[in-house]
Design goal:
By secondary structure, this protein is mostly helical. It is 73% helix and 0% strand.
Length: 56
């Protein structure tokens, strides 16, 4: 019984650490895709090539 309790405690600690790091990265991270999307959208509007983005 002692071994199972230690295993469950270690699993709980590992899950808590993973959840805290994921939550922290979501709160700290800044979206960088907006600039790339705006650049691609502007390039599609100015060129006559086939655009991967829908216009509108």
């Amino acid at each position: 019984m002692k071994h199972e309790t230690l295993m469950l405690g270690g699993l709980f600690a590992a899950c808590l650490l993973v959840c805290a790091s994921v939550l922290g990265s979501m709160l700290i991270a800044r979206p960088a895709a907006n600039h790339a999307l705006a650049t691609t959208s502007a390039a599609c509007a100015t060129t006559a090539t086939t655009c991967p983005l829908p216009r509108g």
